[in-house]
Amino acid sequence: MTQIDFYILQAGAGQSRMDFAIRLTEKLYRDGRRVHLHAGDSAMLNALDSGLWQNRDISFIPHEIADAPLTDCPVTLGTGAFTGAEEVLVNLAENVPEFFSRMERVVEIIDTAAPDVAAGRDRYRYYRDRGYPLKNHSIPSSKPS
């Protein structure tokens, strides 16, 4: 059964959902995992694509938009139905993608300082009500209290 991990960015964590998704994708890629980033819309998709290209000067994350002819790329991005079965789905859309259960793991990133909290709670209930194993990871504030 697909493992669902919720990463909760606490207020003042110093990074956006997208920044965190890119950092997590880099870690997963370095660990040899195949990742699909699911964006909520084409603007987010383009921002993710740019962010992955500009990640860090010393790092490169090979990726491609899933609508393009697929090769054996370890990181894919998309907004719609995805026919692959990567190991990890990083969902940045407001809704649960229909294809999520084909993945070994789903990552949901919630920013407590942003308006996406209600949608994140809805996704949490969706998974919980269907019996998926859930794990929460609190990402603390980077600012001193």
List keywords for this structure.
single chain; 145 residues; alpha/beta; Rossmann fold; 7-stranded parallel beta sheet; 3 helices; 27% helix
By CATH, the topology is Rossmann fold
The beta-strand count equals: 7
Which parts are unreliable, with pLDDT below 50 for 5 consecutive residues or more? Answer: none
Report the end-to-end length measured between terminal Cα atoms: 39 Å
Considering the protein shown, what is the CATH homologous superfamily? DNA polymerase III subunit chi
Broad shape: globular
Can you characterise this structure?
The protein has 145 residues and is α/β, with parallel strands linked by helices. The chain has a single domain (3-139), classed as DNA polymerase III subunit chi (Rossmann fold, 3-Layer(aba) Sandwich), CATH 3.40.50. It has three helices and seven strands, in the order βαβαββββαβ. The protein has helices spanning 17-30, 42-53, 117-129, and strands at 3-9, 35-38, 63-65, 75-78, 88-91, 105-111, 134-139. The protein has a seven-stranded parallel sheet, with helices on both faces. The model has no long low-confidence stretch (mean pLDDT 88).
What's the helix and strand layout?
Elements: E1 3-9, H1 17-30, E2 35-38, H2 42-53, E3 63-65, E4 75-78, E5 88-91, E6 105-111, H3 117-129, E7 134-139
Parallel strand pairs: 1-6, 1-7, 2-4, 2-5, 3-4, 5-6
